Amino acid sequence: MTISSLKIKKYIEPKNIIWQELLNRPEVKKEDLSQLVKEIFNDVRLNGDEAIIKNTALFDKVKLDDFKVSDEEVRESSKNVRLDLKQAILVAKSNIEKFHRSQIVNTQIVETANGVKCWQESRAIEKVGLYIPGGSAPLFSTVLMLAVPAVLAGCKEIVLCTPPNKEGKIADEILYAADLVGVTQIFKVGGIQAIAGLTYGTETIPKVYKIFGPGNQYVTAAKMEAFGCGVAIDMPAGPSELLVVADDSAVPKFVAADLLSQAEHGADSQVVCVATNKILLDDIEKELLAQLEELPRKEIASQALLNSKLIVISAKEKIIEFVNEYAPEHLILAVEDEVYFCENTINAGSIFIGNYTPESAGDYASGTNHTLPTNGFSRSFSGVNMDAFVKKVTFQKITKEGILNLGSSIELMAEAELLQAHKNAVTVRLNELNK
Ligand SMILES: NC(=O)c1ccc[n+]([C@@H]2O[C@H](COP(=O)([O-])OP(=O)(O)OC[C@H]3O[C@@H](n4cnc5c(N)ncnc54)[C@H](O)[C@@H]3O)[C@@H](O)[C@H]2O)c1
Ligand SMILES: N[C@H](CO)Cc1c[nH]c[nH+]1
Ligand SMILES: [Zn+2]
């Protein structure tokens, strides 16, 4: 496809009746993966490491008898990472730490009635598995996004799996970032077999309690199977997406650059731009096509742009209605009335405000997490944050005075539910106190 012939779908003041078309995500070929996932899970459950080695040879085209990354490999890879890149990774790590640490809440003891104290404490999930995709780009930033909060939360075992390349290697930057942050074990295993290994455990891979991280359709289907086997997962995180809302205060060159930043992730990415007038939208489109020409990943980005939409909606109430129905992973607000749009946005994974807040900032280094719900799941899921790595345990301590205060309410409710033993647990105490 030549760039000049690229036609991005345009909609001018679309009526609600065609909104469904605008809200749709790119069509994914719905291959039924459940049989394949079940077979590999069964293989790994029964044959452990042998199944991991066999499936890695089959799907990643490399035979690795030892797939655990050694300390020596980690040390060597650190030497291969450029000094300026190491510095940049340190800046990102520090900001991600600061922002995620700020999410830790202090315990608050509440006296709900005289002598009845209740509180909640966080306990880190002891064993977590982090999946880092390996395919078309070495996403070492995802290592920071998952491992930094895991370490801050106090997770004891942080196990990372990522697919090896055909030489049986993992990108130096992934190993450097994992070691820097404090990942406890690293395995050269990807796809379904990695998720199965983390679910059941093998001779080499430890079983974990929760699995995090994005991945392709095989990884996503495997995470759903893991969930069915009793292992928690973070969320369904699919192909990247971005919605930009722009009014006359926006800079077309910036908006175009932002749209392309997510389009280059994959052919299945989707970017949408809502502008308040046609002149602005045309300027953004012109910039988009000019900048696309210069990109090394222009083929991928062009494919994504075929799934994308340029829309004019002039009324801000209508724009908000559209944003909340679309429920994007990322939302950029390049608008004058930032307060109105921020206050009225309900469904979005992460919001970027103003002309100098590119989405890439959140992908790498501002401090927020880039593992976010896609495909409309921002209606009901949060992105990865500190809460994802802990469980909340509630506590209560009731004194003699407390049970005297609360006792009769419990007795009455238990009796009404026909649960005599529940009532008795209170009655025996009240009898003792009233002697
Ligand atoms: N939403 C987010 O936060 C986010 C962030 C980064 C990446 N992503 C997404 O993650 C995905 C990364 O995918 P990827 O492919 O680059 O890497 P990946 O690591 O997810 O998948 C590679 C693995 O897939 C398995 N596989 C490949 N072909 C197979 C087949 N025919 N049968 C069985 N298994 C097979 C192999 O085992 C291989 O190791 C992309 O879709 C990208 O958009 C999302
Ligand atoms: N934008 C991606 C999430 O949708 C995350 C990422 C990693 N590296 C660059 N970007
Ligand atoms: Zn990105």
Automatic annotation (TrEMBL):
> Pfam families annotated for this entry?
Histidinol_dh
Q: Which residues bind Zn(2+)?
A: Q262, H265, D363, H422
User: What are the entry keywords?
Assistant: Amino-acid biosynthesis, Histidine biosynthesis, Metal-binding, NAD, Oxidoreductase, Zinc
Q: Which InterPro entries match?
A: Ald_DH/histidinol_DH, Histidinol_DH_CS, Histidinol_DH_monofunct, Hstdl_DH
UniProt-listed CDD domains: Histidinol_dh
Q: Where does substrate bind?
A: S240, Q262, H265, H330, D363, E417, H422
Q: Tell me its EC number(s), please.
A: 1.1.1.23
**What are the GO cellular component annotations?**
cytosol
**Keyword Amino-acid biosynthesis in annotation:** yes
Q: Which family does it belong to?
A: Belongs to the histidinol dehydrogenase family.
- Enumerate the HAMAP family for this protein: HisD
- State the name under which the record lists this protein: Histidinol dehydrogenase
